[in-house]
Amino acid sequence: MHHHRRFTHFFNLFCTKTPLRTLPTITPSMHLHQHHRALSFSPLHRHPPDPTPSLFKDDPIAFLSNSWVDNFRHPNATVTNLSPSFRRLDLWLLAYQKVVADDTGSYLPRSSVPSSALNDLLSLRNAVLDRRFRWGQRLKFFIKSPKDTTDYESLSKRKIKAILTTTQPTPFQDKIVQEVLLMILEPIYEARFSSKSFAFRPGRTPHTVLRVIRRSFAGYLWYMKGDLSTLLDGMKVGMVVGAVMRDVRDKLVVDLIKDALVTPVVKTEVEKPQKKKKRKYQKKRVLAEDEPKPDPYWLDTFFGFAPEEAEKVPNWGHCGILSPLLVNVCLDELDKWMEGKIKEFYVPSKSDVIWNSPEGEAEQGNTSWPEFVPTSGPDKTRKMDYIRYGGHILVGVRGPRADAASLRKQLIEFCDQKYMLKLDNESLPIEHITKGIMFLDHVLCRRVVYPTLRYTATGGKIISEKGVGTLLSVTASLKQCIKQFRKLNFLKGDRDPDPQPCFRMFHATQAHTNAQMNKFLGTMAEWYRYADNRKKIVNFCSYIVRGSLAKLYAAKYKLRSRAKVYKIGARNLSRPLKEKKGQSPEYQNLLRMGLAESIDGLKYTRLSLVPEADYTPFPSNWRPDHEKSLLEYIKLEDPKTLEEQQSSIREQGLVSPQDYISMLVWNYKRSTLPRDQLSFVKSDESTVGNQQLLVGSNQDEDDRKSNEEENDENMDAAQM
Questions:
Q1: How many degrees, rounded to 5, is the angle at CA 219 between CA 214 and CA 224?
Q2: d(CA 496, CA 382)
């Protein structure tokens, strides 16, 4: 290990600090004439110069970070020249590392990339720049995968015909070009995308959609759902290229995307031979040396619970991983159009309890309880909101149903003109909130509640009153959960679901099976994290999984019934069932001494063990963490920010956050009034320090207050 580290360190120093030079080659004459003073030198090979030294000097991560910062600093600028980015070989090397990791399942360090692969990568980059690259090549490659050992020059005609006429995996070189395009184009478009779209974007998940709905959709009465997922199957090339050219006018990028969409994809499948009868005892399949491991059982099972809105992933032509980005580029026009309609639709009403300001940016109701909307009169504010997840949209309307119907008509006309998509009233249904709206396998509904409202009146008195209003409820759909379990053969029946044994885990040990199912249950609990009925739905999942494993163990260990399994293995199946060891009194002693195998019991077997729903407040102007960091960095780089900070320090002085918080708490305790403006006075030269915070300006008046007034003030301060 130490020798390997020394060699790696020496190799890095050699590649970064010494110029590339020809290596000495010992000739046969040296063995005969060892007394000669000079050595003969000859080049090692005639390939192009090794590009390794320049690769170790350039940092692709720093370049991409600067690209994100520049695009977020100027989000409306049109990009016209991306050729310098394509010429950077360090980007191509980073793309090569990512594709190799996806292809082989192991990370390849930069120092371990062979020189032959670097030369092939250089030839691929030059082919792209010279317009010699063609998508979907089957026999001629500029670069091949490290695990591809096929000699394409010595193939028979039958194999060549099969390669050319049947469905084949995406070529390795195509994946590299797709990765480079994605790394260059993603920061450009992410800075321009609407905040109303959430699918196929970094930092935006289905959980974000549910939290936005809970935060902003509580006051809407009519909901309109739209399914535009047919656009994810494919769009006309002219539409896609036109959408790309709105912000990117580089000919190389446009031609690459156009060729990827136009080049036909061969999808003819080979005739499958008749399946042989399965043997009773099948041997376990051994993976190849470089074959990546398949997804574990718990993850494969969880993927079966993908909601309808997140089930379809676009794949256009030879675009590959670039397809989701192109979908958002095309549908961004719809997002911007809907944002304009939101501004046009807004008509405030002073008699309404929410959204009654002319600006439309006032906070909705109680910010700490955004799901609750107090009862209002018949005259309501006309307002709408919109959200899109992939090819599915959700529109909320506050106002009469006629306004929602008018908006639907305009939306149908826009989709027909822009995307040539024929929609009708059935594909865009308008439903009232009381009927329940399904989105991302969660049901949005409303119920009337009578909460006790407490507030502090003048004089410090706390008043409690009974209120009435509506509460937006976001609950997980039990019907959809049962449907997904039935599709995965975990149960049968609708009204009285009966768990079925999962025979895929028949050959696994009890400890491994329990561990797999615990991971699955933990993932399900995280998926239903923001559902109001999280405890109920997760406990139901645990019941199905526990019953399925009990039937599996009953068949595996010949225990005849689930009751027998629970008697030996306990309620959470944590005791060993093999040879009925769980019933032996010595098992606990052996387990305590570490002589018996520890088996983890199943999670969430009781309702009290399931965590509560997450009601963490969600900000109205939410942004993903990476976008907030970018905007903060841009703000700090702006010289105006430094000037503002310097002027505020001159006026108010410099105070640490701890001192500022202490000052606020002290002022609340003394006078129950917040003092946001900090004041400083210069003390005498004999005093220690240059400035002193004034927090006791009302001290004389406070000392004269009676005990009764101080009690009232303490109550007021606690309430505030």
A1: 80
A2: 44
* CB-CB contact of 176 with 92 (8 Å): yes
Confidence (pLDDT) at 587: 61
Residue 570 scores a pLDDT above 60:
yes
CA pair distance 680, 692, nearest whole angstrom: 6
Dist. CA 455–CA 720, nearest whole Å: 9
Candidates 720, 719, 717; CA nearest to 670 is 717
Under a CB-based contact definition with an 8 Å cutoff, are residues 442 and 210 in contact? yes
CA dihedral 560, 563, 568, 571 (to 10 degrees): 140
Whether 444 shows a pLDDT value over 80: the answer reads yes
Residues near 452 by beta carbon (within 8 Å), at least 6 away in sequence: 464, 465, 466, 467
Beta bridge partners of 465: 453
- pLDDT (average), residues 439-456: 86
Q: Which two tokens stand for residue 15?
A: 């590649």
Tokens found for residue 688 = 């220690």
Helix, strand and coil in the chain, % to nearest 5: 50, 10, 45
CA atoms within 13 A on the CB side of 270: 12
Q: Give the separation between CA 391 and CA 45, rounded to whole angstroms.
A: 54
Ramachandran area for residue 320 (φ above 0: left; ψ -120 to 50: alpha; else beta): left
Residue-level pLDDT at 363: 52
Other C-beta atoms lying within 10 Å of the C-beta of residue 463:
9
Whose tokens are 């002022």? That residue is 667
CA distance 596 to 511: 12
Cα–Cα distance measured from residue 110 to residue 89, given in angstroms and rounded to the nearest whole number: 12
Check the CA dihedral 710-711-715-718 and report its sign.
positive
**Mean pLDDT computed over 49-75:** 79
Reported as a pLDDT band with limits 50, 70 and 90, residue 707 is very low
Is the dihedral angle over the CA atoms 212, 215, 216, 222 positive or is it negative? Answer: positive
Residue 464: how many other CB atoms lie within 10 Å: 8
- Looking at the predicted structure, is the pLDDT value of residue 25 above 60? no
Nearest-angstrom CA–CA distance, 302 and 488: 10
Q: Name the CA radius of gyration of the chain, rounded.
A: 33
Closest among 599, 692, 606, 613 to 653, alpha carbons compared: 692
Nearest to 320 by CA among 135, 541, 522, 158: 135
pLDDT at 360 over 60: no
CA distances from 610 to 477, 525, 531, 535, 606 (A): 17, 8, 13, 5, 7
Which amino acid makes up residue 304?
G
Structural tokens at position 393 = 């949209």
Q: In which residue are the tokens 């053969």 written?
A: 489
In percent, how much of the chain has pLDDT > 70? Answer: 78
DSSP assigned state of 78: P
Please classify residue 273 by burial: count the beta carbons closer than 10 Å to its beta carbon, then call 0-12 exposed, 13-18 middle and 19+ buried. exposed
Determine contact, residues 673/667, Cβ cutoff 8 Å.
Answer: yes
pLDDT in tens, 154-177: 888 888 888 888 888 899 999 999
- 106 phi, psi to nearest 5 deg: -140, 145
The lowest-confidence range among 164-173, 293-302, 603-612, 681-690 is: 681-690
Contact status, residue 574 vs residue 601, Cβ threshold 8 Å: yes
**Residue range 566-593: mean pLDDT, rounded:** 73
Order of strands across the sheet that contains 469-476: 372-374, 469-476, 442-449, 437-439
What is the C-alpha separation between 718 and 668, in angstroms, rounded? Answer: 9
Nearest to 306 by CA among 476, 436, 439, 484: 484
Q: What's the angle, vertex CA 220, arms to CA 365 and CA 376, rounded to 5?
A: 55
- Average pLDDT, rounded, for the chain: 80
Q: Which residues contact 662 (CB under 8 A, 6 or more apart)?
A: none
Least Cα distance to 323 among 439, 170, 98 occurs for 170
pLDDT of residue 44: 34
Q: What is the pTM of this model?
A: 0.79
Polymer length in residues for the chain: 720
